[in-house]
Amino acid sequence: MQAIYVDKQIPRMLLVKAIKPLWRDVVFSPLSPARFAHLPDPPLPGPRWLRVRNRLCGICASDLSLLYVDADPRIGPAALPGNQRFYLGHEAVGVVSEVGAGVQAFRPGDRVIMDTRFQGATCLSQELDTLCPHCQAGNHSLCENASLGRGPRGAGGGWGDSFTAHESELYAIPPDLSDEEAMMVEPMAVAVRTLLKRLPAPGQHVLVLGSGIIGLNVIQAARALAPGCHITAAARYPQQQEMARRLGSQEIVADGDLFAAAARITAAQVYTGLLGSRMALGGFDVIYDCVGSAHSVQQSLRLAKAGGAVVIAGVKLKPMQVDLTPVWYQEVDLIGLYAHGTESWQGQRRRTYDLTIDLIRQGRLRTAGLITHRFPLARWRQAIHTAADKRSGAIKVIFDFTP
User: Fold this and answer.
1) Any alpha helices (H) in 341-379, and if so which ranges?
2) Half-sphere exposure (Cβ direction) of 122: Cα atoms closer than 13 Å
3) How far apart are CA 264 and CA 52, in angstroms?
4) DSSP state string for 148-203
């Protein structure tokens, strides 16, 4: 088994953090907790486990955060017991190659993508007799028993040739989806869940802050699920600006002055106080923050209309110092989400993946043009450099394991 992984070695992580400002490629050196390794194929750890051989896998910003040791050990999730090794790559589509005797949902040859495999243990993967309320509701990423440590965990990930998983951690891909569409189901499902956390009404002004792959998918999810809203996208790079327009954004903010954009687009009144502090009265009804940094969250809160909402879809694995006064002063809702699960849509409860695949089939979510670069695993360093530096023209960079 080939795999790229990061070991939870705090001294090495702290060393890399200290050196990285001077030598960014320290993450590829022997000093790093990250490794590219050839490991023996692990045996299936139980009767309901299976093995998957990868075909494609995307490079996600959350994977890059782990590789580049951007995570801070003071964040809340770091207080929970968990794996000591993190196998990178979760936007993976592969083929089942081996199944345990107790597997009922899959057979060799089935195409699958990761469902909860990367999110952590669940009541189902630990084979608990009683499910927590979130697992009962189909929102397994919120499992209350995730840190019990019962039973085995899978080995390998999407940044490698194969991985093992409990059958509950995978999702069967229907035959009418291509491998490329299947690989994009996971990031598209995150965008669908983002929209459904606060669905804009017809005529409302929406801001998508950040036009990486999640932001671009949020744009097209907004166009699919809330076609009557007005979409503004903040896009830094030319390829992002072009794709944001293609996917349905009416306005593109390329210069970074979102307060001027709010005044022009929404007729907000923008005020500047001491030390350059800015605040908008009026502004955007819903802001989808697809960056998730302290700066973007603070800016989003000050750009949101009174009674509006900021939905945080971007992930930064570090504590933030943020001015939260708009939450009470303007009664702005601050909403987070993690991955995907089960949604309420048009009076029904549906899995995010099921809804996302329906939208792909209907042509309302599109993958064309989103995958810009492909690399074999042997060129993994070049792939990571390309994905991490958007000046390369990258939108989505993938590993391709097909012959």
Assistant:
1) 352-361
2) 25
3) 51
4) S--S----B-SSBSEEEEEGGGEEEPPTTS-HHHHHHHHHHHHHHHHHHHSPPPTT
From 119, 88, 99, select the one nearest 50 (Cα to Cα).
Answer: 99
Instruction: Provide CB contacts within 8 A for 267, sequence distance 6+.
Output: 282
- What average pLDDT does this structure show over 111-120? 95
Which of 248, 174, 171 has the alpha carbon at shortest distance from 211?
248
**Sign of the C-alpha dihedral, residues 142, 213, 375, 364?**
positive
Residue 72 has pLDDT above 90, yes or no: no
Pair of tokens at residue 339: 């991955």
With a pLDDT cut of 70, the percent of the chain lying above it is 100
pLDDT tens-digit profile of 253-292?
A: 998 899 999 999 999 999 999 888 999 999 999 999 999 9
Cα 294 from Cα 300, distance rounded (Å):
10
Residue 325, helix vs strand vs coil: helix
pLDDT in tens, 339-378: 999 999 999 999 999 999 999 999 999 999 999 999 999 9
Cα(223)–Cα(268) distance, integer angstroms: 23
Say how many Å lie between the first and final Cα of the chain, rounded. Answer: 17
The answer to whether the CB of 252 falls within 8 A of the CB of 225 is: no
Would the pLDDT of 46 be above 90?
A: yes
Q: How far apart are CA 297 and CA 30, in angstroms?
A: 35
C-alpha 270, offset from chain centre: 32
